[in-house]
Amino acid sequence: MAKEKKTTMKELIAGLNADLQGEFNAIISYLTYSAKVTGPYRPQLVSFLQTEIPDEQMHAQYLADKIASLGGEPAVTPKPVPQSNDAREMLKFIYEAEAETVENYKVRRTQAEELGETALQVQLEDMINDETRHRDEVKKILDGWA
Ligand SMILES: [Fe+2]
Ligand SMILES: [Fe+2]
Predict the structure, then answer these.
(1) Please, which residues have CB less than 5 A from ligand 1, an ion?
(2) Whether the predicted model's global pTM rises above the 0.90 cut
(3) Domain spanning 9-74+85-143: which CATH class is it, in words?
């Protein structure tokens, strides 16, 4: 059986840059959706969306710092933000993005471990915790939508 190829540092940096673009996407999504959202749940949704922004900003800052420390060039463009004028659809987009982020960070965590980047591995575990909480909160809002 062929030995599995180990992750290279180049692959890890490319992955972290994709993650950084995802964090930029989250910041822009939460900021613009909170501006646009209408309907009877607007007050709660504005507050909910804006409360998430500092978490995502800290994730973005951490990733940019780490990419630079590892010798990479931090991305400066976001993953494209899907547009919507419908509150429920905005939350559906957010749920999908958070769920994808959790899975991406699990992959990144394994890559960091393979390369012996223990501090990064631990930080990614912390970020998996944050994103899982975001994902599950959005799911609860969607599950009970009247
Ligand atoms: Fe995040
Ligand atoms: Fe998040």
Answers:
(1) 23, 56, 59
(2) yes
(3) mainly alpha
